[in-house]
Design goal:
Strand order of the largest sheet: 4-3-2-1-5
Number of helices: 2
Distance between the termini: 102 Å
Strand content: 25-35%
Helix content: 25-40%
Oligomer: single chain
Structural class: alpha+beta
Amino acid sequence: MFATPAYAQAAGGGAIGGLAGFVPIILIFAIMYFLMIRPQQKKMKQHQQMVAALRRGDQVVTQGGLIGKVTKVKDDNEIEVELAADVRVRVVKNTVAQVISKTEPAEAANN
């Protein structure tokens, strides 16, 4: 008795209004793709190429900050790095953060 019934107003625009609400969300995803996802994928691809090109004699830095020279490259995703004279450690290839100096391939050095 004391309250009067409230009536909702009809929404105008129909399907166009609903679709216009998704446009900002789509733009946000597009911007995130070009600013975050795509550069990260390019960086990962460059890192994979660097790891695949590792060879004996390369001087590398691991993610732990150790600097050493590659003495042996194994096929099972592992390398042997010499940190000091007669101090060799086995390292997973993907933990190599940077190659400081590359060695020339044997074929190019002989010519």
